[in-house]
Amino acid sequence: MADTKKRSLDSDNGTESGPEKKLATGDGDGKDAKQPVADPGSEAGSMLAGFQTEKIMRESSREKNIFIHGKMGSGPNEGQDAVLILEKTPFREDSLAELFKTSELKHQMRNDIYSTYHMHPPAHLNDIKATVVCPATEKHIKKYQSQELFLIQESGEDYRNITLPYIQEQSFSVQWVYNILEKKAEADRIVFEDPDPQNGFVLLPDFKWDQKQLDDLYLIAICHQREIKSLRDLTQEHLPLLQNIQQQGQEAIMKRYSVPSCRLRVYLHYQPSYYHLHVHFTVLGYEAPGCGVERAHLLSDVIQNLQTDTQHYRTRTLTYPLRADDALLHKLREAGRF
Ligand code: M7G
What we know:
By secondary structure, the chain is an alpha+beta fold. Helix content is 24%, strand content 27%. The N and C termini lie far apart (46 Å). Bound molecules: 7N-methyl-8-hydroguanosine-5'-diphosphate.
C-alpha cells in the first residue's frame, strides 16, 4: 500500500520525488504525464504590496492559516474587495536535511533536558500558500467568515420550493469551472480528461492543494455536462457518468501519484458552493474542509443509492449545515421549515 505520509512531490509538476520516486508513465488519455504547471508568477509580482486589511475573518493557530478581507492596494484590481487566505504549508520530508543544514537557530530557553529555539529557514523552505479571490462578492466574504452553523433537514419538497429558486437566483458564478472545461484556465494542471460530452470529466488539483506533498492530496473531477447542479439532480440516468468518474478518476490518481483507491475518499458535497456537478478526491487521513458526515456524500454510496432507487436524491430528506447568516437559512425559517 502506498505510504502517502512519506512522499513529497516535485515542486510543481505533481510527480513524485525523493527516494520513493516513481514517475508516472502516462495518463491513459494520450497526454504526457509530466505536464508543467502554469506559472502565474509573472502576474503576481508584488500584487499584495499595499493590500489593505479590513477585517480578519478567521484565524487558526492550530491550522496555521488566516482569512482576511481587504482591498487590493495595486494592480488591475486596485481598490477592489478581496479575500486573501494565507496558509503555512506542510513540512516536506525530502527537504528536512536541507532545512537542518541551512536554517539559522536562535536559542530561546533551556530547562533540564528541554530546550526551545526559533528556527529561521531560507525563504524557499518557508513557503506560505496565498489564495486571492478578487473581486470578491459579499457572498465570498461571508463564505470565509466564522459563523455559527445550524443543521437543516431539507425534504425533496423543500428543495423544489425553497432551495432551488434560491440557488437559481443567487449562487456563486461557475465561470471558473467553464474556464477549466474550455481550457481557458488551468489547462496545464489537468491530470486526466475524458472528453466525452455525456460521461466525460476533467480531473485536476483542487486549488486548496499546493501539490507539494501527498499528505493533503486533493483533486476535483468536473463533469462536462453542464445541466447537473448537484446531488439533487442525480438519477439512474447519471450512473454511467458517476461510475466513470469513480473508476477513471481513481486510476488516473494511481497512475500519477501512486495513491491507490483504498487510500482515497471520493465524495460530493451537499450543499456545494458551486452548482456544477463535481466530485472531490482527497487522501484518507487528511481532514479536508467539508469532509465531515454533515456535508460529504461518498460517491460509492451515491451510486448504490441510485441503483436502488432512481428518485433517491430527488425525494429523500438531506441534512446539511448552513451558516447563521445564510440567506437560505432565512428562507427556510420564513417557510417554517427551520
Ligand atoms: P464545493 O463543494 O462546491 O464547495 O467544491 P466548497 O468550496 O465549499 O468545498 C468546490 C471545490 O472547488 C472546492 O474544493 C474548491 O477548493 C475548489 N475550487 C474552487 N475554485 C474557485 C477553484 C478554482 O478556480 N480552481 C480549482 N482548481 N479548484 C477550485
